[in-house]
Write a structure and sequence with these properties.
homodimer, alpha/beta
Chain lengths: ~270, ~270
Amino acid sequence: MVDSRAIGVFDSGLGGLTVLAAMRHAMPNESMVYLGDTARVPYGTKSAQTVVNYALSNAQTLLNHGPLKMLVVACNTVSSVALPALQEALSIPVVGVITPGAKAAFASKASSIAVLATAGTVASNAYEISLRQMGFTGTVISKACPLFVPLVEEGMVEGAIAEAIVEHYLADVPRSVDAIILGCTHYPLLLPALQKVFSARVQWIDSGKKTAIFVQQELEKQDLLASPSNTPTYHYLVSDAPARFEQLSAFYFGEPVEKGNVELVDIKASVENR
Amino acid sequence: MVDSRAIGVFDSGLGGLTVLAAMRHAMPNESMVYLGDTARVPYGTKSAQTVVNYALSNAQTLLNHGPLKMLVVACNTVSSVALPALQEALSIPVVGVITPGAKAAFASKASSIAVLATAGTVASNAYEISLRQMGFTGTVISKACPLFVPLVEEGMVEGAIAEAIVEHYLADVPRSVDAIILGCTHYPLLLPALQKVFSARVQWIDSGKKTAIFVQQELEKQDLLASPSNTPTYHYLVSDAPARFEQLSAFYFGEPVEKGNVELVDIKASVENR
């Protein structure tokens, strides 16, 4: 059986394009629809309840666009607090980035693991919980790095300022740590500065890339893969500033997204708190 | 005649508390209601149309809370793009922070003025337009400084990283500039680093402080002042994370806000783009 429905992917903004790029590379015949909630970005400093509400409205917006066979939550903050709510609300499989990232770190045989993430992800402790459930008994040190996202968004991914900020947040992470989980979609872009500070033997775990492989395995397991001869389509939805999305996409995506496929959408959801 | 209705104040988040503090200091017998839209913060990188929609929904939320005699827009980004829409929609006077800041810079007799602000405020060119309308014929140089807000929110307002970021953005602002407008409510908190980089003779214009004086003059002019014997009330509304608001208020406000007066509100507004 083949399933030509698209995979839905959403993120708080543009960072999730790093996950989408890995997914398109891994599954070149799968159609995908990406939603970036650029009107409400960032999520990393907002409360868990608000993030859950935003996640539900994003999922609904994607489903309104067309039928989906799977929903991929490309945002670490959402994945760490909203997966149960999304899974309860939707009838299609929902995959986040935490489990694939934690699995890869566990499989790396590291005995000490650092998790770099937003304040929201760190507060949820989602990576450590996932690692412990897999049976990891080593050291986990989690660090919120709130300036990393604005730094990447400014394109300042190397040089003195980026390195000083890396040092600032990671001063007490042992330089001998075995593996570092890049627990936010923006962070892989900061590798030039991160690699200057840590030794060459650290294993860098890019949760987004691991998620692409995980999604492919899940589709296969659930008999949801598209035909190898399928001609995929790609659509991009944003809740604010489509022109800026087109301009900046190359930075996150490796190449500009398909022109004309970027659509401004109205996310019908109030800012609900309860 | 005296008018004991409250003054409404809103901002994208907590930065506007610097304006509220100046207003409370200048007008100790006026009641005030402050709304921080912490669920959708920041506004500085969002499109003008989205900022207008957010501003209208914030104003409505404040009016739903109780009668107001004036609305003060404490956010520079909103003031630079949404004042006409707010003035058209509301029947009470609406005051922003751009005109008071520009007036003070013009009155300073500076012949060169730098404007430091968010990307949205700089793109609107609101400060330069206001200065030219007043007859200013000198040099205006505007600089968007996107890392300043996250830097302040991290409490990193002095030291090597803060100074390096100031240097990064302001490298081509002449050190001999006469006046610098701090065109974002967060920026006055970064003065320790800014003052290290610029000479002691620069006149720093804090738009928020100037707005407090302007509001007082407007209330007097329009016969809207409260009685000198009025016992003022203060309420704080936030669209996300009231506990975080209480914790951080001292940083922006100089002292913690009144406990128990912080209320989580539901801003009923879709993310509309048109």
